[in-house]
Amino acid sequence: MKFAPFLNLLLCLVFAPLSVLGAEAPAEKPNILFIMVDDLGKEWISCYGAEDIRTPNIDALAAGGMKFHNAYSMPQCTPSRATLLTGKYPWRNGYVNHWDVPRWGVGYFDWKKRENTTFARLMKDLGYATCAAGKWQINDFRIEPQAMKKHGFDDWAMWTGYESGVKASAERYQDAYINTPDGSRTYKGEFGPDIYTDRLIAFMKAHREEPMCLYFPMALTHGPLVPTPDEPDAKTGAARHKAMVSYTDKLVGRLVSALDELGLREKTIVIFTTDNGSGSGIVGTRNGKKVKGQKGKESEAGTCAPFIVNSPGLVPSGVETDALTDFSDLLPTFVELGGGKVPEDLTVDGVSIAPVILGKAKDSEREWIMALGHGPARLDEKGVRGVKDFATRVIRDKRFKVWVSSEREIIRLHDLKEDPDEKVNLLGSEKPEHLKAIEKFRKVIDSMPEKDARPLYEPRAANPWDRKVK
């Protein structure tokens, strides 16, 4: 080899620009399609034992992929979304309770704060095209119409959330009020879930030659309970809920079919989950038992979400796993799947489960998982904060689970192997395995701050619709 060309090559390698996430990527980066249904427990997914409905498209993902049994969401909307977007638990990112920004005005998910860095921004750094469609609700698009772009999404079609004083914005289903890069408007005569799905499919077609990270936080199946285009005559709440679940399954099928038609199926990792349990007025049958919806509760039916991963050729098929994972793991998992590493100056609580998903490890690195965040947050003279200084939370491993009070005390211990319905409180037991579990979880609690963080955002001038401090 001649010296000059060799020297030039060496200099190129040494001084080549390094990504913030600089890590060796696979030869071909997989696409990621993350689907999250709103308000749906395992009792409404037939592959998890639901008996009142069939969900064939979701079931097919499980049969041809990996089904998790120990995956935690947070108990309610905002905590789940903020956790999965940032990789941080609610006690760290400040969203320890629900906070509906368009409706209440004050506070917002602030893209200017490094701590609020989303997986979308990191995936863009790795060369991914990014798109989101469905429900956001943690920014007010009247104030910042380009909030989604600033959070890292190249394209989007999001229900605005209910904007106080804008009656049309209440509609996420029929005549949906949707924000896109062109602004917010009513889509008269159209069914919102179809618009969100169409947007994702159009993005797939336009970016099929690039790696894509697609985020689909569905509007379905959250209330109001409505008829669907397939079942327009559904009258009762129960019939409408069932119709909405069936339509959810249909849309999952549409997305998978689009991947097939575009030749993207075998290089796309599809993840299906839900943000929390079903609404409290919804009752389903699972494995012979009636299950009342537990949205906003820290019970297993409120937090232990369906979680399915599928990709022919990348994800092993027909696998059921008891590996522990929760929503804080999603950001580092996406980054590792994209060939990167989480920046050293970005704190995350999650651990990548990419090795489990890809069949390179039989178990995750998690020794415990956690869920917290239910009920509405409140305002004080400093702005948005949690209801308590220390939010109640639940922590579990593969066998035991503890409930933790706002005084940082363990108030319940359950053996989920023997008592999956959490009826028997073992606190006070002298059995060695119970004492060992208490000691283990006590150390976890002691590792957390005594006071939860507040949401990070820069205060703005007051708007007429802002919620006032009581």
UniProtKB/TrEMBL annotation:
Per UniProt, which keywords does this protein have?
A: Hydrolase, Signal
Domain Sulfatase N-terminal, residue spans: 30-339
Return the Gene3D superfamilies for the record: Alkaline Phosphatase, subunit A
Q: Where is the signal peptide?
A: 1-22
Q: Supply the name of the protein.
A: Arylsulfatase
SUPFAM superfamilies annotated for this entry? Alkaline phosphatase-like
Q: Which family does it belong to?
A: Belongs to the sulfatase family.
